[in-house]
Amino acid sequence: MTDRILIKNLSATPEGPVSVSGWVETVRDQKKVQFVVLRDESGAVQLVHPRSEESDPIAESISGLAAGSFITVSGDLKIDERVKLGGLEIKLSDLTVVSEAIAETPIAADSSIDKRLDWRFLDLRTPRNSLIFRIQTTLEHAMRTYWIERDYVEIHSPKLMASPSESNAELFEVDYFEGKAYLAQSPQFYKQMAQAAGFGKIFEIGPVFRADPSFTSRHATEFVSVDAEISWIDSHEDVMKMQEELLVAALTAVKNKHGEEIKTYFDVDVVVPSLPFPRIPLAEAKRIVAERGYEVPRADDDMDPEGERQIAAYVAEKFGHEFVFLTDYAASIRPFYHMRDDADQSITRSYDLIWRGTEITTGAQREHRIEVLTKQAQEKGLDPEELSFYLDFFRYGVPPHGGFGMGLGRVMMLMLHQPNLREVTYLFRGPNRLTP
Amino acid sequence: MTDRILIKNLSATPEGPVSVSGWVETVRDQKKVQFVVLRDESGAVQLVHPRSEESDPIAESISGLAAGSFITVSGDLKIDERVKLGGLEIKLSDLTVVSEAIAETPIAADSSIDKRLDWRFLDLRTPRNSLIFRIQTTLEHAMRTYWIERDYVEIHSPKLMASPSESNAELFEVDYFEGKAYLAQSPQFYKQMAQAAGFGKIFEIGPVFRADPSFTSRHATEFVSVDAEISWIDSHEDVMKMQEELLVAALTAVKNKHGEEIKTYFDVDVVVPSLPFPRIPLAEAKRIVAERGYEVPRADDDMDPEGERQIAAYVAEKFGHEFVFLTDYAASIRPFYHMRDDADQSITRSYDLIWRGTEITTGAQREHRIEVLTKQAQEKGLDPEELSFYLDFFRYGVPPHGGFGMGLGRVMMLMLHQPNLREVTYLFRGPNRLTP
User: Fold this and answer.
1) Are B394 and B368 in contact (CB under 8 A)?
2) Which of A131, A289, B346, B389 has the most CB atoms at less than 10 Å from its CB?
3) In whole angstroms, what is the distance from residue B287 CA to residue B294 CA?
4) B329 and B219 fall within a common domain
5) Do B99 and A397 touch (CB under 8 A)?
6) DSSP state string for B54-101
7) Which of residues 232-261 of B touch A (CB under 8 A)?
8) Which residues in chain A (358-377) have CB-CB distances under 8 A to chain B?
9) The domain spanning residue B177 has which CATH number?
10) Residue at which a domain ends, from A41, A70, A99
């Protein structure tokens, strides 16, 4: 490996000879002295070079440096409190241009999001944008660690399926040798299969695919889904309890590791929520938002995005909480595999989790009784024949179980107060975006 | 949650009342006393019920129990060293059938692999098969922890692409609204994009797709790829060094957590390899296997599977090592993006990693000089126009970098001495298998 010091470690390095590598952020090419701001994955540092009056190859290199070029430099590290950037600088003794950039950068700080996504690899060079993915790394590792400490099994369910995983809508079709396959819309059926297999508790973080033609800030045709499923639950309450603990563990890890940087680059204070999160049955939530003067303009029993914002505002005012579980959704607007309430068959043992006004999760207890499950599928107009591979999971015994699916991008978007999934996705995919 | 004790924890539980839940493995319905072996995700325990001479609903339940049914029982835990299964049993006071199984099980221990895969959710109920996925969980977590402790960033690259990620062969085509998309054959281009973005060190564990019509024990149309890519390397040696350390960390974690179970269920001693792994240039490897009497029957410069087995046998005999890096593959048989040797343009700075005779990884330093990269693409008959989105990554500066891709299933197969990827994959996908 190149024998370099990470820039973040310079402040703990004694004055004297050092070598660093990274890319050129800015050049100030003055008559008597030249300055370069060099950035690597950990930070930025000022390089200084007083021009010599004789032949000066370093000065010539710096004069020709295009921003973005990757270089390796050696020099003397000096503490200098006058230097705004970290209170130190490196006086150059050697500079090697490893990879030259084209002089014209195609995007600027004020470029449109679409233009920035065209040049995502340059867009991600800003410390703010690369921070997003270091935060996401911490978030995911904390979630996996929470699960692994509790003996969950990680699964990788197939993304190629012979039939739809959720519904016939929003389905991508694949040419599969002489036939057809479909891309998994969720790992739903295969998470449940693990329960029939006796795995007990499982999780998966992986891609899902939705042929959703919409262009909202919250939808993508491919996104990362965070999924868990657990056996021997009494109701969806057990799933909510696990999920809220999981989120507290994950947000605590993020706040501890990145709280200050998040404040610096996003002006956001990461709030670790208190336990338990508030829970409000959907019918009650609709009454509450109606009392606030908002009638949800839907013919069905569902909430709408404005209703979710209204109930979040109510919860923030009343409980000082950013999260709320809306529970007991009507069976009419839930998938056939959600278990219904014993006392009231018109509602399900299910929930959505709303964070700062936006839905990030659907969870539920699943119907595990084969005859009830088959009947519910038929009521939704599904053909049990087409679902036979899934229904088989329930014919040979299966414990009561439930789980949730959570969009990783939505969590990142809401955590960092971003307006759009595109900002927090490594490479966004939508109806008219398949590149880079 | 159901208030149950995991079966593995019974041995540390005092005698007295307990409740356990799981599925019925066997029933011995004798005249005076009934025995049930109950299994959960953690182990198995014997339940005992002496028949009463009066009305005995528990006895009736047990007589009607089909294997596979999920039940919850309460009773008195008794230490009894005569009981082969863990030296304890539970004398029943209550039994609830939670979910009845069909009496006829469609597979048996001697069913064909294809039949077992048709009923994978039952096949996975055996302690041996469920252990595979607990081991995989430990392996993956150890790898991710190794990376995260070293400040790697986790990425999720898109699986939907506008053009091929590796080659025009083995490509799945997707109907994408009015156009077409392709499934990623690897995260290769997007791992490299992270280097241009200045991420430094990244990893991804996720699905990749190959429209490969072959039916070998080592190929699948969808599999989980373990990928890493790092900046500022001097050569492929730096990548090998990281990968061997990673594997030592992962295998150490597996051996510590599951070594005894693996011995019990697979009769395999997990060997933590010594560092460094042997390295042999491919040309020398071919001379060595030729000296052993095997001439690789290929027109090109590549190894073949038998050659890989032969060189592995040589390495085992000579160095007592299960792993070997074969290095310096000919440029003619490597992708255009592998960097060539400075002194000999006919060979690449690349390697394959062979474990016990089977290839599990290809790694390389990547060519990052745009003019060389473009020329190498053209020499391979590729159209730089089609690759323009990828070639753009190299026009604005990029550090020297390299990485590897490793098939998770192959690692599991070789670790557990299994004959086939199908045995170690949650749900295998091949040319004629898309279900369940």
Assistant:
1) yes
2) A289
3) 9
4) yes
5) yes
6) S--HHHHHHHTPPTT-EEEEEEEEEE-TT-TTTTEEEEEEEEEEEEPB
7) 232-234, 238
8) 368-369
9) 3.30.930.10
10) A99
Query: Which chain A residues in 137-166 lie under 8 Å from chain B, judged by CB atoms?
Result: 137-138, 140-141, 144-145, 148, 151-162
CA A215 to chain centre: 18
Can you give the C-alpha Rg of chain B in angstroms? Answer: 27
- Do the Cβ atoms of B234 and A190 come within 8 Å? no
Place of tokens 């049955």: A281
Task: Give a yes or no: residue B112 inside a domain.
Answer: no
Cα separation of B131 and B133, whole Å? 5
Check B198 against A124: CB less than 8 A apart: yes
Strand residue runs (E) in A15-128: 16-29, 33-40, 43-50, 70-79, 88-99
B98·A400 Cβ contact <8 A:
yes
The structural domain count of chain B equals 2
Rounded distance between C-alpha atoms, residue A7 and residue A18, angstroms: 10
User: For the domain that residue B28 is a member of, what is the CATH number?
Assistant: 2.40.50.140
pLDDT tens for the 436 residues of chain A, in order: 888 999 999 999 999 999 999 999 999 999 999 999 999 999 999 999 999 888 999 999 999 999 999 999 999 999 999 999 999 999 999 999 999 999 999 999 899 999 999 999 999 999 999 999 999 999 999 999 999 999 999 999 999 999 887 778 899 999 999 999 999 999 999 999 999 999 999 999 999 999 999 889 999 999 999 999 999 999 999 999 999 999 999 999 999 999 999 999 999 999 999 999 999 999 999 999 999 999 999 888 899 999 999 999 999 999 999 999 999 999 999 999 999 999 999 999 999 999 999 999 999 999 999 999 999 999 999 999 989 999 999 999 999 999 999 999 999 999 999 999 999 999 999 999 999 9
Is the Cβ of A386 closer than 8 Å to some Cβ of chain B? Answer: no
- Per-residue DSSP letters for B202-236? EEEEEEEE-------TT--SEEEEEEEEEES-SSH
Mutate to test the interface with A, among B102, B134, B156, B393 (most CBs of A within 10 A): B156
Are residues A165 and A77 located together in one domain of the fold? no
Residue numbers in A near B99 (CB within 8 A): 368-369, 394, 397-400
Chain A positions in Cβ-Cβ contact with residue B211 (cut-off 8 Å): 176-177
State ipTM.
Answer: 0.97
Given a contact cutoff of 8 angstroms between Cβ atoms, the answer to whether A146 and A249 are in contact is: yes
Contact with chain A for residue B116, Cβ under 8 A: no
Q: Which long-range contacts link B29-33 to residues 24+ away (Cβ below 8 Å)?
A: B29/B62, B29/B63
Q: How far is A287 from chain B (nearest CA, A)?
A: 31
Answer whether A388 touches B (CB < 8 Å): no
Q: Is residue A432 part of a domain?
A: no
- Edge to edge, the sheet with strand B201-209 lists B153-154, B201-209, B222-231, B401-407, B358-365, B350-355, B323-327, B279-281
E strand map for B212-300: 222-231, 279-281
- Answer yes or no: are the C-beta atoms of A283 and A315 closer than 8 Å: no
Query: In this complex, is the C-beta atom of B55 within 8 Å of any C-beta atom belonging to chain A?
Result: no
User: What is the domain extent for residue A152?
Assistant: 120-424
DSSP state of B10: G
Contact A121 B156 (CB under 8 A): no
| B358: three-class secondary structure by DSSP | strand
- A227 within a domain of the structure (yes/no): yes
**Rg over CA atoms, chain A:** 27
For residue A338, the Cα-to-chain-centroid distance in whole angstroms is 26
